Give the backbone structure.
Amino acid sequence: MSPSDTALLRDPGTPRATLDRPADYLHEEHTLRSWFFSTDHKRIGLLYLASITGFFVLGAIAAGLVRLALIVPNGAIFSNDTYNKLFTMHGVIMVWFFLIPSIPATFGNFLLPLMIGARDVAFPRLNLLSWYIFMTGSVFTLITLIVGGVDTGWTFYAPFSTTFSNSFVIPALIGVIIVGFSSILTGLNFVVTVHKMRAPGMTWFRMPIFIWTLYATSLIFLLATPVITMALILLIMERAFRIGIFDPTLGGDPVLFEHLFWFYSHPAVYIMVLPGMGVITELVAAFSQKKVFGYRFVAYASIGLASVTFLVWGHHMFVNGQSQLASTVFSLLSFAVAVPSAVKVYNWTATIHRGSIRLDTPMLYAMGYIGLFVLGGLTGLFLATLAIDAHLHDTYFVVAHFHYIMVGGTMLAFLGGLHYWWPKFTGRMYPETWGRVGAALIFIGFNVTFFPQFILGYLGMPRRYHTYPPEFQLLNIMSSAGATILAAGYFFPMVYLIWSLWYGKRAAANPWNAKGLEWTTTSPPPAHNFDQTPLVDFEPYGYANKVPEIG
Amino acid sequence: MAEAVGIALSEHFESVEQQREATTLGMWAWLLTELLLFAGLFLIALILRIQHPQSVTLATTHLKFWIGAANTAVLICSSFTMSGAIACSRLGWRGPMLHCMLATASLGTLFLVLKGYEYYTDYVEHMIPFLDRPYALAADPATRLFVDVYFVTTALHGLHLMTGVSILLVLTRMAARPHFLATHQNRIEIYGLYWHFIDLIWIIVFPVLYVLNR
């Protein structure tokens, strides 16, 4: 290739005709209007990607400030009130505005129609509306959190949130309720799309596992989100009009809120985890060049997890006076969650086993995910045990446990998937070396941050406290030091992915030699995804399963 | 005089049949969500009945049973007229369809008027715990919680009905135009699902709040 050719390839401003490149959704139109009023699922996916990345940065800054405050045991850096507002800001932004929409709304929107061979989701205009609803609610709450501040934690427990808190609870709740409708509409769209929009020949058991997990997630969106909507409306009623539902002095029952809240919020954990599991399954198969081991079991395990997750909410309430019988049943059902989770982990490792493994950046993230998910999952079993939970409840052990699932799990899956599908999203490759450095930094930084918190929690440091006994300082400083490594790690993909938009190598249609309909179209895909509707007459993950030669 | 009946194909669907099935399934999925929205409230009321039967009886006897019963009849009639609208739309009878839709909207409004009168009598009886009225029911917390659940549930249902009537009026106006049935007949059917669902929710609300423990 002559130097003038490479210059042409690098410059996206060069007119299409001179490049002889097929029309694609990114270059069809360039106006702002064509982005903000687009009903193309790919563009909407990228709108979500940009917005949740913004929320992630804000949530991460709040987390950084929380870790900064915990360097000293006496809480000298911020006032108690500021500290409460900071951890609430971190929790609300990360849970409601980053983790829940992260993989479903970005990768789901972009990939669901591509992977099942459809032209778009079933309701494209509703899809755009979902993004607007999401932005309305989340920006509203964000302004509340930054300008006024809320000190209830992301869980909004009553009666503190309804009676005692002097912060801006009602506007924050309104924003979260609005965002809930966006989740519901996205879930509705995905369920109908999976049922009705599959290409000819794309049977249920020919769908990629990522689609199975998205489907399970969408069911949770539909069935659980309305319950939290109702619970939060009741909170607003009580706080604004003194209609007693949760405050005992008004005739209410505070444990009722916890029931309603966790009936959504435990399934919400699987809204965050399931799509990540789907992403990891895709990565593991592509980078081992092997069929997914036990495809049907992995598919069933996704639906199984989504079902069992509705029956375990009581394990958040072991120490608040629910009956022994209820606690025992919830404990046993929580143990049952380990079964489908373990099915998935064993299937991933069996897929990797004797594959032709390529340790590119997405695979590094996938390997990191499997290790951290196992650790996070096993500590979940500790917490599901009644006697141990009485000791560990509301300590840093819990904080470490769910960060291993949410960050070690979902966040790594998100980054892995982002690198894997980046060529498909943008038509550009990311720089591989920097990708690997970033993945390694994030893995190290994450463990240094959160492993000490397991020990802190086991030793008895409660969560959400601004001060702690001086003997905990060393572990807290370790954790805060890890957070800086983690922050540096996040910095890498943010910089080089944006850089690659202009200077990255052009991506081929299928740079990973992966299977799946999304790799059969060009990178980036044309506006209607496929030149003609694909006919699916092959099984999923049709890799050759070659046994590598062992020297 | 029967008109042509049909659905205009949107570009991202392969066939009219696929489009019809997808939109109908979409509404069913939405109704599933709505059911779960109310389910928590029903569960609160039912658990209260089991745990505090006397307190709940005390609350229930203060609810206006006959207004609730009349409203149940009104909503069942409205579902009947809505079914009539759907049947007419399938046959392409635009005029009778519009009349049925208007009748449905009026019955829905009648429900709201009766409900408003019921709230007014509740207010007069010092049952509404805000607006500076001292709370006159027994100091029993479970009674108070039940009454609060009654207000929230019926208000939420009323809100759905208000939304339903508004959408129905807009839809009636759209359906009055020529060619509507030829291009968007399925909108009548999909809207019908929503209307029947609001009716169904009331059919659950009425026994759960007014009838049991009476």
Observations:
- The CA atoms of residues 25 and 527 of chain A lie 4 Å apart.
- The longest helix of chain A spans residues 80-116.
